[in-house]
Write a structure and sequence with these properties.
- By secondary structure, the protein is mainly alpha-helical.
- The protein folds into two domains: 194 residues, Fumarase C, Chain B, domain 1; 253 residues, Fumarase C, Chain A, domain 2 (Up-down Bundle), CATH 1.20.200.
- The strands form four sheets. Strands 4-6-7 form a three-stranded antiparallel β-sheet. Strands 1-2 form a two-stranded parallel sheet.
- A hairpin with a 2-residue loop joins β8 and β9.
Amino acid sequence: MSPSALVLTGGDLGLADLFSWERGTGEVHLDPGAAGRMEASVRTVRDVVSSGRVSYGINTGFGAFANKRISPDQVRQLQYNLVRSHACGVGPPLPEALVRRIMVLKANSLAAGVSGIRPEVVNVLLALLNARVTPVVPAQGSVGASGDLAPLAHLALALIGEGEATLDGEILRGMAVLEAAGLGPVGLEAKEGLALLNGTQASTALALEGYRLATLLLDTAIAAGSLSVEGLAGSFAPFDSRIHAARGLAGQSRVAARFRDWLTFSEINASHEDCDRVQDPYAVRCMPQVLGAVADTLEHAGRVLQAEANGVSDNPLIFGDEVLSGGNFHAAPVGFVADFMGVAVAELASMSERRIDLLARRVNPKLNLFLTVEPGLESGFMIAHVTAAALASENKTLAHPASVDSIPTSAGQEDHVSMAPWAARKLLSICDNTATILAIELLAATQAVDAQRPLTTTDRLEAVHRKVRALVPPVPGDRRLDREIAVLKEAVLDGRFQNELRL
């Protein structure tokens, strides 16, 4: 087994390890100890079938059909019917990287050994993953309880030779999906279709992507905000450690310390130490407070998602010879933190848009209106700010929590749902908008620093300036800004901007 392989135990998958694996080419395997646990739960399922004991989803129908008994000779057909009937996802397919994450999370959950599924079924799922055969999973169709049924049904279809998948950009259908990985179709036994479909793995994979992006955006916001302080000739006083110690919020203090690292020492700052400006606007002065709250939000979300990535969220669960029905499939914990992160990231964008406006409206008298060189002849960043304002406004609508909504399904049996998938998908849209706004701020702040040459900013911020200019070389006068914004946005979202600057 390669040292870069990811080994799933069903309980100790670290988010950093998951994200690192996703950036590489390593394989994924079940821990050897998982097979024994899984086989024990399978034996219990078989005992239920042979004894005639009534257990939900093993020898009963699903949802509103929970009270309908299924004869022993039909329990296998029941599982195939479940997979086929629940494959009702619609909309564009999820990105392959996210589907691969769903596959890992599903396999990790099943490896805990309380779901009544054979190891060989999970190994087929991992064989597809390792062969880079990625099932096509539509993005829409889940309400986040009873798990992400529709997305996971499309995943399960691939295992029985009835789904669609991509390989090297080609769409494969039916048995060709399995043949591409040198496999044959899985023969589903009692409970196995339900084990594959029931769970929060799609919601969790999406929310984890939001968490990953939000972390990158927070780092970017601290760098961009610091550069804007210099562009605006702002005060360093609001970052004094004594202010933040007096409040006692950990995230706020940590973020303030990061700003101090970015802002000490600067010729630009020294040049206006004796100016008559008493206080800066909130979008500058309150960055430690707001971005610190974002940091605390992400820390909480990370803990929840770490637990969910290692949790078992299907139903029923098997403990020894007991089969217990519960509600771990309800994705409220995921929905809540996705919504919480959406609000937090929207605030990153809102503050950034305000700083772009400040840079453009000549708060610093050394700057021209809209950061122009020839005011009037040029428009400069006039409409770049409008774009930032438009996206910040979109974010405010998108940040309305999805998890406060619920709509009954399955004839009222599933009468309270989480809407976690929509919460997470909204979060990704907010992150995308925010990356664009931060890219605009980086461009504007860089231009504001340029206008104050030959004065220099701090060593760290000069590195940010060089990075921006390496991606977007300076062009005098008015020009198209959309392409420059897109280049910086891409660098922010793929982590190049942060990693190369060690943010």
